[in-house]
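Exercise 7.
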Amino acid sequence: MALIFLIIGAVFTLAGLRSMKHPAPQINRLNGYRSRRSKKSQAAWDAAQTYSARIYRNTGLGILALSIPVWLINNRELLHFSLTWNLGVSLLFSILPPLLIRLLTETYLKNTFDEDGHHRAHAANIE
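Solution. The predicted structure, written as tokens, is:
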């Protein structure tokens, strides 16, 4: 089970680092963080790419930080748990991070950009 957590943590960390280094430059349907709110403007798109990449990386590092001690224990204490419990926890660790990333990124975009995709601070200065 700890190996699964290590793999999940490594995948999220590497995905975040890759997205930080090579964010999707333009709004598209295939690459990058995509949502209705992130596609409202190029500024919202760029902010979503930057913010979600950091959250991906941090989530992956958090999973790694939790799973490395379990892996070092060598799973012996975890063998008495049922397969159902082990699979349930593994699914939880693979489903919750994307939901958390989406929730945090959408909240950030909602607080930073208006409904038309204009930066709130910039829109306040115009009026």
